[in-house]
Amino acid sequence: MPALPSSIIDPLWCQFAALIPPVTDTHPLRRYRPRIPDRIIFDKLIQVLVLGAPYAKIADTTCSATTLRTRRDEWITAGIFEQLEQICVEFYDRIVGLDLENLSVDGCIVKAPCGGEAAGRSPVDRGKQGTKRSLLVDGAGIPLGCVVAGANRHDSPLLRPTLEKLSRFGLALPDHITVHLDAGYDSSKTRSLLTELGCEWVISQKGVPLQAGARWVVERTNSWHNRGFKKLQVCTERRIRVIEAFISLANAVIVVRRLVREAWCTYRWETRPTQQP
Q1: What is the reported pLDDT for 277?
Q2: Which of 45, 164, 140 is nearest to 92 (CA)?
Q3: In whole angstroms, what is the distance from residue 246 CA to residue 250 CA?
């Protein structure tokens, strides 16, 4: 059984396959084992992302765990995962439209039992190893960027690099941008940074309970990451570049799912899912 429905995997694969660089034969005698099809590796990586299982559990007679890791690293070096995420976000902006006037940022701490470059002592898990994701979303909760750091890092120092992730898309930014933040960002340094960037802000005040606001969308997107992608719920990767690649792939899945959901309510086509995504 596939980890995701074909209505989501097939559009992702069409864009992903177009980004894969051609592979040349470097063997002097042109004798080598047949290269495993990229589609098989892609489907296996989707299973790793969604199910969170080790590579050895996902591997079978079609490909080994070593092949999965090797091909994954090849695609990371080529920047394919980040390009896929950018293409999906740009398509969403053209078809539906991004709400860039209201941005939300928040951090999320997950377990990192294997340690690694982005691991630190978690203040919410008795000092065990953990990883923090600082996530940027638009007004509808579409993920626009993520910064990975140790769980012992505070949210405020990660705000600037998180907001700078927006520049990689080359989108036309509105004149007035409001950044919605929780009480963890309630400081003069945060306000000075937002003033420097030309942004307005809505920051929850410390010590005041039940403050309703527009930042609930980033909480929901963090929940999508943790509940929909087991690989992100418990970070078992040790290298930041691999973690960022899986986050980019998860963001692409989220954006495509939202696009299919919007189209499901408006259009009909032959392969239209019977249930709303």
Answers
A1: 66
A2: 140
A3: 6
Domains and CATH numbers, the chain: 1-95+240-277 (no CATH), 100-238 (3.30.420.10)
Q: Is the pTM of this model over 0.85?
A: yes
The CA distance from 128 to 90, in Å, is 38
DSSP letters along 39-73, please? HHHHHHHHHHHHH---HHHH-BTTB-HHHHHHHHH
Q: Coil, strand, or helix at residue 142?
A: coil
Residue 22 DSSP SS3:
coil
Maximum CA extent, the chain: 72
The DSSP 8-state label assigned to residue 133 in this structure reads: E
Residue 212: is its pLDDT beyond 70? no
In sequence order, what DSSP letters do the residues of 214-271 get, joined into one string? STHHHHHHHHHHHHH-HHHHB-----HHHHHHHHHHHHHHHHHHHHHHHHHTT---TT
Rounded-to-10 torsion of CA 51, 244, 128, 46:
10
Interior angle at CA 137, CA 136 and CA 140, nearest 5: 170
Q: How far apart are CA 244 and CA 128, in angstroms?
A: 21
The H or E element spanning position 192 is helix 188-196
DSSP 7: H
pLDDT digits (tens, 9 = 90+) for 150-161: 999 999 999 999
Q: How far, in Å, are 48, 205, 255 from residue 251 at the CA level?
A: 15, 30, 6
Between CA 213 and CA 273 the distance in angstroms is 34
- Please state, in angstroms and rounded to a whole number, the distance separating the CA atoms of residues 152 and 154: 7
Question: Quick one: which of 139, 161, 134, 135 has its CA closest to 150?
Answer: 134
